[in-house]
Specification:
The protein has 11 helices and 11 strands. Among the domains are: 92 residues, Orthogonal Bundle (Helix Hairpins); 144 residues, Histidine kinase-like ATPase, C-terminal domain (Heat Shock Protein 90, 2-Layer Sandwich), CATH 3.30.565.10. It is of the alpha+beta class and 452 residues long. The protein has a 5-stranded mixed β-sheet with strand order 6-8-9-11-10.
């Protein structure tokens, strides 16, 4: 679990997901807390306004018709108002309500306001005739407020106000179900945003990987925010400049190799005129080696710059055809197992790549066996020989130009040492790779891997 979290946190999308999820969840919980606080304040304000309005109404009635109002209070004819019980002390006064009433009545009224237990106002049990109204039989008793003040006649009044109790809804800030919903929604939004923002960068990463395997990658569509588009545009420009560098190098190599063929041809004609047969044979042998180098230089140049189109082919049919052609030329080449199915490749580049590996296997290992396998959407074509193999620490170096291995036949070294270099460059034209590995039962295997 820790390893997975570490991998998630190291990625930009993972960091963005974590930050967004935590930020959204924290913001939602804080907003919910403040919304609940505002709701509490609204309840307190409404309660205060109702107490003030009731007290002001009773005071106005006493000012207009004091005798009638006192009689109605005694007989409880004013709904929600009655004489306050004697001897009830206000333990906890309400300064805000007291100050508001003092502003309305004047300080000479000396108001006192406080809430007392409901039983103080409703100690008597009113007779309920018949059945209670539906839905209100079990309602809690009203809140009881005691208001004392001096009326306009200078008489001290004490009134008990019964106001319906306002029950505050349950606080949703720390409810497990609400918190779980907030966390789930925050995570879902964070995943969507992180994937959307990281998508251009994943495209850039894929393009960089393709560029490392191919000399002719496709430009990336320049989509996304301004910063991302600028990065993609710079990457496309870099790709174009690198491709241009490859073209210039290839053209230079091809020009040199091509121009050398004419003087080499003239040199051969002159060498044929040497009278000493032993010297002539040695000179012609050196001339042939130079000519092979020039021809393979042209081959290397053409392998680095190919404009071949992509085609969908049957891989097994291609491998069988290569093996049969080699057998017709007298080479010990055999087609082993196939992988089935079709793949999109550059056919000539793949054929030349396999042909070079087959030639190496026959030259250095006396035989070649071609086989194919497919796993996880990737195709691997292997060319195996039964020769002496190569030391492990030299396997990667064999792909360097002009690096030659020991031949498996008498005569020691042979070849120019650029066959594997050409094979790797040809594989790069169809986004493939080539690597070597020694077999446990002897021999060497060259593997061409590409997406299928």
């Amino acid at each position: 679990m820790r390893k997975r979290f570490s991998v998630l946190y190291r990625s930009m999308a993972g960091q963005m997901f974590i930050m967004l999820a935590v930020s959204i969840a924290a913001t939602s919980i804080i907003s919910l807390f403040f919304a609940n606080q505002a709701r509490r304040d609204d309840f307190a304000r409404i309660r205060t306004e109702r107490v003030i309005a009731s007290a002001v109404d009773i005071a106005a009635r006493l000012a207009r018709e004091p005798a009638l109002t006192e009689k109605m209070l005694q007989e409880r004819l004013i709904l929600g108002a009655a004489p306050a019980p004697t001897g009830v002390a206000i333990d906890k006064s309400e300064p805000a309500i007291t100050a508001a009433l003092a502003r309305q009545w004047g300080t000479v009224s000396a108001p006192e306001v406080g809430q007392v237990p409901s039983g103080m106002c409703h100690g008597h049990k009113a007779a309920i005739r018949g059945q209670a109204a539906a839905g209100i039989a079990d309602l809690p008793p009203p809140d009881c407020w005691i208001v004392r003040f001096t009326d306009s006649r200078g008489k001290r009044q004490a009134v008990a106000l019964s106001l319906p109790r306002l029950n505050m809804p349950q606080d949703a800030t720390m409810q497990p179900l609400d918190l779980l919903l907030i966390i789930i929604m925050s995570g879902a939004i964070a995943v969507i945003v992180a994937r959307q923002v990281a998508r251009p960068l994943r495209t850039l990463q894929s393009a960089a990987g393709a560029f490392s395997l191919s000399h002719d990658p496709q430009p990336i569509p320049e989509n996304g925010p301004d910063e991302v588009r600028a990065a993609l545009s710079t990457f496309n420009l870099m790709q174009e400049r690198v491709r241009e560098g490859f073209r210039e190098r290839t053209q230079l190599l091809a020009s040199i190799s091509h121009d050398l063929q004419t003087p080499l041809t003239r040199l051969r004609l002159r060498l044929e005129q040497v009278e000493d047969e032993a010297l002539r044979a040695k000179l012609l042998q050196d001339h042939h080696a130079m000519l092979v180098l020039v021809e393979e230089g042209l081959d290397l140049a053409s392998s680095a710059e190919t404009q071949e189109n992509w085609e969908v082919i049957d891989i097994d049919s291609l491998l069988l055809s290569i093996a049969e052609d080699a057998e017709e030329l007298g080479q010990p080449v055999r087609f082993g197992s196939g992988c089935g199915g079709r793949a999109r490749v550059k056919v000539m580049a793949l054929s030349r790549c396999i042909g070079n590996l087959v030639d190496n296997a026959v030259k250095y290992g006396n035989s070649a066996e071609i086989s194919c396998s497919r796993a996880d959407g990737r195709i691997e074509i292997s060319v195996r020989d039964h020769g002496p193999g190569i030391e492990e620490h030299k396997l990667d170096a064999m792909f360097e130009p002009f690096t030659r291995g020991m031949a498996g036949q008498p005569g020691g070294r042979s070849g120019t040492g650029i066959g594997l270099t050409i094979s790797r460059m040809l594989a790069m034209t169809f986004n493939g790779t080539v690597h070597l590995e020694n077999m446990t039962d002897g021999g060497l295997r060259a593997i061409i891997g590409f997406d299928g």
